[in-house]
Amino acid sequence: MNERSIDFLKQTFSRYYSSLKSLWVPEEIEKREFGFFLGKEKAMVRHRSFDSAEKLLGFLAKEAPFDVYYSIATYDSPQEAMSEKGWRGADVVFDIDADHLGRQCREEHDMWVCLACGKEGKGGKPASCPECEKKDFHEVNWVCGKCLEVAKLEVYKLLEVLEEDFGIGDENVEVYFSGHRGYHVHVQGRLSSIDQAARKELVDYLTGTGLDLGLVGLGAKSPGRLVTGWGTRIARSLYEIVNEKGIGEKHAGDKNLEAKRKRRILEGLMANDVEALSKNVSKKDFESLVSLAIEKVSVKVDPVVTTDVHRLFRLPETINSKTGLLKRRVPLESLSSFDPLEDAVVLKGDPVKVSVKRAPRFSLSGGTYGPYANESATVPREVAVLLLCKEAAEYSG
């Protein structure tokens, strides 16, 4: 990114932060460490502390950082080196990223180009260039409405488990769009004292890692009754899988499940009786169905984020430099209708001229743009910001 593009983004970000009357800050702000990316060179300035939202907001308006982070932990001395901070506790946070969810739509909008020979392609980058076999690529990764809907479904799954299995209700949870490819879920207060090992166990439970099937009623020596929690979710998932059209061909090895046998299986699941399923399919098919059910209902969270008790996390209501979109709080009652590509757009303004290297067809703020390839375009400010943040374009005035 050239200097003119960087200056344009900094001015745009500064104008946004200067316009704010207030800023979200975490509880005990004076006990938190803050970190910033002050330039696109991606060198972080950290170990900073602020004792009020007003002072932090003043810093943001003056410095216009590209990214703003705060520690999920509280410390006695947050401005000191890590070994001398004095850890007190840490919020529990979850990161759900569409990039980790096997989204098929990336084949439609992600792009790569070989830096050695210029060969281009769609989707995720290959292990090596099919033309020259080199391994250095420039990637242009995008996000679309389909990606974000997949991530939102994971949020619903997480909220369900937190409430049903851990008793953590909506009043203790906040959901945020990350500003890029997914969502952040913050758990307030209750779990802040648990250590790294306990957080790993929490993640393992959510993801179904090391799940003991006997404990949920699916093991060889289990009583044949599905128990609550994981057992209930697996039963529901099995019901949905078996009830799919063509389930026999797709999952059970036969060309088709006979209607009568399929009905018996479904009736057994409705009665919460796993014996009906295990008696009507082979052991191999039964294990395959259970594995598929677990995969469907497990929650895909980033384990590194949740288990790191010293994590610096993006500050809510600040700009994400990967897109120019806001990390925006989403009230739970509005989650179903929330559209990040409209509701997290805050850097609107007059049209801006940019020189676009390459970009797929994409949507933002109610409009559709591209595809572009080595051409000039005059686009709304928020679109120009997105293209610049993706390093798919340069500012040209």
Q: What strand order characterises the main sheet?
A: 2-1-3-12
Look at the helices and sheets and give the structural class: alpha+beta
> How many domain modules?
4
CA radius of gyration is: 24 Å
User: Tell me, what is the CATH class of the largest domain?
Assistant: Alpha Beta
Instruction: Give the CA-CA distance, first to last residue.
Output: 15 Å
The CATH superfamily of the largest domain appears as DNA primase, PRIM domain
- What is the total tally of β strands? 18
Average pLDDT level:
86
- Number of DSSP helical runs: 13
Kindly report the oligomeric state of this protein.
single chain
Spans of 5+ residues with little confidence (pLDDT < 50)?
245-257
Indicate the proportion of strand residues. Answer: 15-25%
Describe the structure.
The chain is of the alpha+beta class and 397 residues long. The protein has four domains: 3-94 and 172-200 and 303-347, DNA primase, PRIM domain (Alpha-Beta Complex); 106-140; 213-297, no CATH class; 348-397, Ribosomal Protein L9, domain 1, CATH 3.40.5. It has 13 helices and 18 strands. The strands form six sheets. A four-stranded antiparallel sheet has the order 2-1-3-12, with no helix packed on it. The longest helix is centred in the middle third of the chain and has 22 residues, at 145-166.
